[in-house]
Amino acid sequence: MSNAGLRPQGSSIAYSVSKAAGIHATKCLAVTLAPEISVNAVAPRPPVTRWHKDTCAEQVAKINDSAALRKEVKLEECAAMYVALLKNDNITGKTITVDSGVVI
Q1: How far, in Å, CA of 2 to CA of 43, rounded?
Q2: Residue 50 CA to its chain's centroid (Å)
Q3: DSSP three-state, residue 12
Q4: Most buried among 49, 67, 79, 80, using CB within 10 Å?
Q5: CA distance linking residue 37 with residue 20, whole number of Å
Q6: Bridge partners (DSSP) listed for residue 44
Q7: Exposure pattern of 11-32 as b/e (b: 16+ CB <10 Å)?
């Protein structure tokens, strides 16, 4: 998932629409599979990984400035949210953003 499914932007309409469809599919599956199975999603802003090593510091600063918390998302923070959702049996049909407050 991605927070692009929660923010209307024109840069990549097909990508955003596909992510929004995934968010809706999460809700539909949660209803269909309940009460035996809970279904949730995590919609992160792209976390800092080795894949971003060629991203210039200016681009990273611009992205961070668009976030309410003014900081980047670490891969470990995304992983921690997946684990938290696995541990909680009373959450279903939710898409949780891990994006430093880009989508509020």
Answers
A1: 4
A2: 19
A3: coil
A4: 67
A5: 22
A6: 98
A7: eeeeebeebbeebeebbebbee
The reported pTM is 0.83
DSSP letter for 97, please: E
The answer for residues whose C-beta is within 8 angstroms of residue 29's C-beta and 6 or more apart is 39
Using DSSP's 3-state secondary structure scheme, residue 39 falls into coil
Pick 85 or 16 by higher pLDDT: 85
Q: Is 43 strand, coil or helix?
A: strand
- Please report, as a single letter, which amino acid is at residue 68: A
Question: Mind listing the pLDDT tens digit for each residue in 20-60?
Answer: 999 999 999 999 999 999 999 999 987 777 776 677 777 77
Question: What's the residue count for the chain?
Answer: 104
Q: Is the CB of residue 45 less than 8 Å from the CB of residue 99?
A: yes
CB–CB of 65/100 below 8 Å?
no
Can you tell me the distance from the alpha carbon of 94 to that of 26, in angstroms, rounded to the nearest whole number? 7
